[in-house]
Amino acid sequence: MAAAVHIATDAASGLTFPVRDDECLLVGMRRAGNGPKGCHGGGCGVCKVQVSEGGYEIFKRMSRAQISEAEQAAGIVLACCVRPSSDITYRLF
Hints:
mainly beta; Ubiquitin-like (UB roll); five-stranded mixed sheet; two-stranded antiparallel ribbon; 2 helices; 7 strands; 13% helix
């Protein structure tokens, strides 16, 4: 079965780009020329975003040194650790 494609929107710039639901948000951001370079492992925190609209799945453990439980509850996540499950709007920190 082919992966579903969702539209990601950078709330700051208005840039929109496709992201498949089998890839992390950071991969889509980088493909669109809008993603920071980092470890891709959930530890460095350079891809910290706040999701304001849409759904996502956390598929990789995020370092608590970078994302606290309170931040995660507020929609703040690492783009390398989440996959979109619908169209998504985010703001990069």
